[in-house]
């Protein structure tokens, strides 16, 4: 086991800020390589393992987790998803993407379950984690906590999400950011209701997009495109279910299974990428290094894969001063990141037509349907979609 960081004279190998998928994958992989590390997380443990967000794991992330002994839970309890269903004014069609492209499927496993598994594995490996330890500031290997405490580390790994302090520390040193705002907001709903279709459902509607994502037998995630600035509190359970029924065209395709709304949150579809995700002693992974809109469900997958790329690079630098992996980290990650952003961007264009009846809105929606028709009828398009949908 590594040094305890509350020993003021100790310097840990890596101080990891944030116990999300990126921080916990990184922590486990560093311990496997004999690197002493500490994870500093601002929330309480219960909040960390209770936060529902992602659910779709691509084969590359699943392979990374299982190869490193972190996939038992998802292999045991995850569900395989092979199809997605599109609904619009001309009816619906189901695309079996596991028969196109690289013939791959998704594993659906709630992010909070993955985080719980990663946390257990980290503690079993002897890992040191402190909850309710918000980091205030990071400067050259020193991490300062809000409670006045301090951790000294040879490297700091910023895994604290897109509003974190580590990203701010890096950009303050001149790292540039590329960013995009889709101008779209989703009301993200978590409902105590079993799935209403055997697949992911994407509904195009003149009132805006609606999405259905199965999570477990008893919980389903739904999305509704809403105006920017929407207050989730304005959306009662009844209003949510009525709007979902309209946009998912239940009159034509059958009713939705309804239940209590467990969570409702507004998510602005914004993206950004740091042009260099680290320098010197500070290296970032996951949403801290770049935010991707959830329209193609790539964020958690990128977080897992980036953390797995960063771990050996940090371990080599610590073990024998070999910084080649760190020097290469941006080049190893960014092509994959940009490929995911490109697909996510395309997906956002497919799902979000303009709302309303102006000539421009009608033009925009016609383009949306032309894209959908191409996906329905073109084998080449389906192959490309499948490869991008399951790839990271
Ligand atoms: C509604 C929604 C649905 C999504 N669906 C999908 C999906 O299906 N598939 C997919 O791949 N992705 C999805 N995503 C994206 C995915 O959830 C994120 O990309 C993923 O959580 C990123 O992991 P991370 O570890 O980088 O950051 P996070 O999960 O955000 O973890 C960061 C951690 O750092 C902690 N922290 C922050 N600041 C500090 C501080 N100052 N000090 C200490 N700790 C700090 C936070 O408390 C948090 O625990 C979705 C996102 C949303 C919002």
The profile of the biggest β sheet is:
8 strands, mixed
Going by CATH, what is the homologous superfamily of the domain at 11-82 and 104-180 and 270-346? FAD/NAD(P)-binding domain
The distinct ligands, each listed once, are:
flavin-adenine dinucleotide
The CATH class designation of the domain at 11-82 and 104-180 and 270-346 is: Alpha Beta
Protein name: 4-hydroxybenzoate 3-monooxygenase
Pfam families: FAD_binding_3
Domain FAD-binding: 12-344
GO molecular function: 4-hydroxybenzoate 3-monooxygenase activity
Describe the structure.
This protein has a domain of 226 residues: FAD/NAD(P)-binding domain, CATH 3.50.50. The protein contains 12 helices and 19 strands. Strands 1, 2, 8, 9, 10, 11, 17 and 18 form an 8-stranded mixed β-sheet that branches. The relative contact order is 0.17.
What are its keywords?
19 strands, 12 helices, 8-stranded mixed sheet, 392 residues
Element layout with pairings:
Blueprint (H helix, E strand, L loop, with lengths): L10 E7 L3 H12 L4 E4 L4 H5 L6 E2 L1 H9 L4 H6 L1 E3 L1 E6 L2 E6 L9 E3 L2 H14 L3 E3 L4 E5 L2 E4 L4 E9 L6 H8 L4 E15 L8 E4 L6 E5 L5 E7 L10 H11 L2 H4 L7 E14 L3 E2 L2 E3 L5 E2 L7 H22 L3 H28 L7 H19 L1 H12 L2
Parallel strand pairs: 1-2, 1-11, 2-8, 5-13, 11-18
Antiparallel strand pairs: 3-7, 4-7, 5-6, 9-10, 10-11, 12-15, 12-16, 13-14, 14-15, 16-19, 17-18
Helix pairs in contact: 1-5, 1-9, 3-9, 9-10, 11-12
The site of flavin-adenine dinucleotide has 36 residues, from helix 1 and helix 9.
Pfam family, one: FAD_binding_3
Keywords: FAD, Flavoprotein, Membrane, Oxidoreductase, Transmembrane, Transmembrane helix
Organism: Streptomyces doudnae
């Amino acid at each position: 086991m590594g040094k305890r960081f509350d020993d003021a004279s100790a310097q840990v190998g890596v101080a990891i800020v944030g116990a999300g998928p990126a921080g916990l994958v990184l922590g486990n992989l560093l311990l496997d390589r004999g690197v002493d590390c500490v994870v500093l997380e601002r929330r309480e443990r219960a909040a960390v393992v209770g936060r529902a967000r992602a659910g779709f794991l691509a084969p590359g992330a699943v392979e990374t987790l299982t190869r490193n002994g972190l996939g038992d839970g998802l292999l045991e309890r995850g569900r395989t998803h092979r199809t997605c269903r599109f609904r619009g004014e001309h009816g619906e069609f189901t695309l079996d993407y596991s028969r196109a492209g690289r013939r791959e499927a998704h594993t659906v496993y709630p992010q909070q379950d993955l985080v719980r598994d990663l946390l257990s594995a980290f503690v079993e490996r002897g890992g040191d984690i402190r909850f309710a330890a918000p980091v205030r500031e990071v400067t050259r290997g020193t991490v300062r906590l809000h409670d006045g405490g301090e951790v000294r580390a040879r490297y700091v790994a910023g895994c604290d999400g897109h509003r974190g302090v580590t990203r701010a520390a890096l950009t303050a040193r001149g790292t540039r950011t590329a960013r995009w705002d889709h101008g779209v907001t989703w009301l993200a709903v978590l409902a105590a209701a079993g799935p209403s279709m055997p697949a992911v459902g994407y509904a195009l509607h003149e009132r805006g997009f609606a999405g259905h994502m199965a999570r477990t037998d008893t919980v389903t995630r739904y999305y509704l495109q809403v105006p920017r600035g929407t207050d989730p509190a304005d959306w009662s359970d009844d209003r949510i279910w009525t709007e979902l029924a309209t946009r998912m065209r239940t009159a034509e395709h059958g009713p939705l299974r309804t239940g209590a709304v467990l969570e409702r949150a507004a998510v602005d579809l914004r993206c950004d990428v740091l042009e260099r995700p680290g320098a010197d002693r500070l290296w970032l992974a996951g949403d801290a290094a770049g935010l991707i809109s959830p329209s193609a469900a790539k964020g958690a997958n990128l977080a897992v894969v980036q953390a797995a790329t960063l771990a050996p690079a940090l371990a080599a630098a610590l073990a024998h001063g070999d910084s080649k992996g760190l020097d290469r980290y941006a080049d190893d990650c960014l092509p994959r990141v940009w490929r995911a952003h490109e697909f996510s961007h395309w997906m956002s264009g497919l799902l979000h037509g303009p709302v309303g009846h102006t000539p421009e809105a009608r033009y925009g929606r016609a383009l949306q349907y032309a894209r959908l028709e191409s996906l329905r009828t073109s084998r080449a398009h389906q192959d490309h979609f499948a490869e991008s949908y399951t790839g990271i």
